[in-house]
Design goal:
Elements: H1 20-43, H2 51-74, H3 82-85, H4 91-100, H5 106-131, H6 138-165, H7 169-188, E1 226-227, H8 238-250, H9 253-265, H10 271-299, E2 307-308, H11 312-315, H12 320-333, H13 340-351, H14 355-382, H15 387-405
Parallel strand pairs: 1-2
């Protein structure tokens, strides 16, 4: 008999492995670490000027939110109360991640991720899989196998970004000093999985004596030209309308950044709230990359389209509730047909007949339907007033938005010059 498929192919079936309590203690810390990495990466998106790093952070914060959700769901199956499962496992690990929030620049942020947290998590995940009884603890092992594969991919991308960003001796010195600080704190906190010895003598914050605050100002590198706003045209001017749609998608990076505020600044919400906003944030950044990919498809140059600045004039001046209520108003309005998201998709498919934008707008439409459902659910729980008061709050934000847009003139877009690739 070939024994490779004995025990359904599960590892360590005859080994004692961890007890339920030992599994739960480790998974609790895994969940908390993933949750805090979500907040860390989301909160630093706006202060990261490098376009490609900004986009990568948006993806990874969402993936970390998914890992946190899976670990939190597993904990009650291991006799951990749901209340405890959604709390910090201890104050020691909290000190480490509070400190990590205070990365001063992209080099320090990437140093913490690539030199400290992601490698420590991978090592702890692999040690867990190698030790636990894969038959008894199958649900955890199944989750961790997927998590390990994705974190390994993410770490490779982060390391490449680190090599690009940390390109001077001065930056390297800063990055090494910051990663050493975080490494020492993590070690003093007992490590990611809590199996090390806690050293209270060295577990002291360096920068996090006050809470981290997101700087409310745009940070952009020179990947794309910048304009206040773009000229809007009717569907009859097909090439111009398609260019406008592509530039609008590109500009959604500002919406993603604004959702970083909502995610980080709204305290004491249910975990499901943060998981939903994390998804919404990543979707908006994906939509920005839709515009980038479409521009490269048409012009063979991703920076052919400008990115708009006007939305920063209102998004970063609103409190999180006002901001989210306003975004709900915008996205709910896009569900109307015509025009709305369905009309944008049909224009790309039937009028512009551009294959890539047809696909991208199809998924953009699907995502926006989801966002409306998320916002309706979250605002119902979040907002204490009546539906009429919520509508008034959203309309106030929409008025602020319209006034901000009119502050400066619109700019024309590049001419496609017949370069559109049609189906």
């Amino acid at each position: 008999m070939n024994r490779t498929y004995q025990y359904a192919g599960l590892q360590n079936a005859t080994r004692q492995g961890f007890s339920v309590d030992q599994c739960a203690a480790r998974i609790h810390r895994f969940a908390y670490a993933a949750e805090r990495l979500m907040f860390l990466q989301a909160a630093h998106i706006i202060s990261t000027p490098e376009r490609d790093v900004k986009v990568l952070l948006a993806r990874l914060q969402y993936e970390d939110s998914q890992y946190a959700s899976q670990f939190k769901v597993r904990l009650p199956e291991l006799r951990v109360s749901k209340t405890k499962a959604y709390q910090a496992p201890d104050a020691f690990l909290q000190i480490v991640f509070d400190e990590a929030m205070h990365a001063a620049n992209t080099a320090e942020l990437l140093a913490g991720l690539t030199k400290v947290f992601k490698p420590a998590l991978l090592e702890a995940y692999q040690r867990y899989v190698n030790t636990t009884n894969g038959l008894a603890d199958y649900p955890t092992v199944r989750v961790l196998k997927t998590v390990i594969a994705e974190v390994e991919e993410g770490l490779r991308l982060l390391e490449t970004a680190y090599d690009d960003v940390v390109d001077t001796p001065e930056k390297e010195s800063e990055a090494k000093a910051w990663s050493a600080t975080l490494h020492n704190l993590l070690e003093a906190a007992g490590g990611i999985d809590g199996t090390g010895e806690v050293n209270l003598d060295t577990l002291h914050p360096v920068r996090s004596t006050t809470p981290y605050l997101i700087p409310k100002q745009l940070t952009r590198d020179d990947t794309f030209p910048r304009v206040w706003d773009i000229i809007h045209v009717d569907n009859e001017r097909v090439e111009e309308r398609l260019m406008q749609m592509i530039a609008t998608r590109l500009g959604e990076t500002t919406i993603a950044e604004a959702l970083g505020f909502v995610l980080y600044e709204m305290k004491d919400q249910p975990w499901e709230f943060y998981a939903d906003i994390s998804r919404h944030l990543w979707d908006e950044m994906r939509h920005s990359v839709f515009g980038e990919a479409a521009a490269e498809d048409i012009f063979d140059e991703r920076s052919a389209m400008p990115i708009r600045d006007w939305e920063s004039a209102y998004l970063f001046k609103m409190d999180p509730l006002e901001l989210y209520a306003m975004l709900f108003g915008v996205e709910a309005g896009l569900m109307k047909y015509p025009p709305g998201k369905r009309e944008e998709f049909e224009f790309c498919r039937d009028t512009a007949r551009h294959p890539l934008m047809t696909t991208l707008q199809d998924f953009d439409w699907a995502d926006e339907v989801l966002h409306v459902h998320i916002a309706r659910r979250r605002l119902k729980e979040w907002f204490d007033g009546s539906p009429e008061e919520l509508q008034a709050l959203g309309e106030k934000g929409l008025d602020f938005r319209a006034r901000a847009r009119a502050m400066h003139p619109q700019s024309p877009l590049p001419d496609a010059n017949g370069k559109l690739r049609k189906s």
